[in-house]
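Hi, here's the filled form for the chain we discussed.

Project: internal
Contact: R.S.
Residues: 230
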Amino acid sequence: MSKALAIGLATLCCFAGGAAHAERPAFAIVDHPSQDGRCIGDNGTGDLDRSETACLAHVPELAQRRGAALQLTFRNRRTRVYRNEDAKCAGDDKGCVKYQLTGYFPDHDLLLLERGRPEGIDWLLVRADIGDEIGIVAPPHYSPSKRWLVSVTSRLESSGPPDGIDVIPAKRDRTLKDWHYRTPEDGKWRYEFERWDSEDEIVLTAKPNGDTAAPRPVAIRRKKSEWLFK
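And the returned structure, exactly as it came back:
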């Protein structure tokens, strides 16, 4: 993604919602940007200022940038190329997409890719062993024992990638299931990550859309191997 596009999207994220979002840090799409998975030498603090340069230097055996192409080389020796559509981005924007390597989780060999399009941004978690990828809504937060990752973002505009919540097991394990929630277009609430209370409980803040009701805490709890949203 170009720096200009990142700045424009960050400005939109900070100001599109009015004064209620003025507390967000620069280059942030959520109130509490995750610092997990930042590459060595990345000094950013928001969601959109993660450094690809730092990540390429951190894991040169896994990722290489060749102009518009970001090539990943997985542990099984297979490769995959994520290619920026620069020509389309310079034209009518139809089909415009740009990829950046923006994070690495060494404990679990996970790569974080940012996928930018004119309508908004989402992310991909890619397992570096064989290249499995999972779409998520924001850079994720580790649970206290690093067993899980949670990604949360709230919709400021009706367009763009869907917002919601993703809970992903950090380690591939057939007994642990992903959990995904997408905010309905007519949803009355938008959600912000606050903290993990334990390996099995995530605390969020639910903020109302379009009225003066006070924000309220809500929880996602894991019971009998299933995540339940209350």
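Let me know if anything looks off before we file it.
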